[in-house]
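ok trying again, last paste got cut off:
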Amino acid sequence: MPIVKLGEARIHYALEGQSEAPVLVLSNSLGTNCSMWDPQVPAARKKLRILRY
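nice, full thing came through this time. structure:
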């Protein structure tokens, strides 16, 4: 999973889907990680680009 550094913070993210598709941002709650969206991603990425962090 790629990482972006913002100052002292490191944020893991996943970007999936076709580059020309509209982007859907999925942000998980505290105490979870982006794998909580795994069940929804296969259907959503057919028409959308998915950014999870």
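cool. Helices lie at 41-44. The chain has a mean pLDDT of 93.
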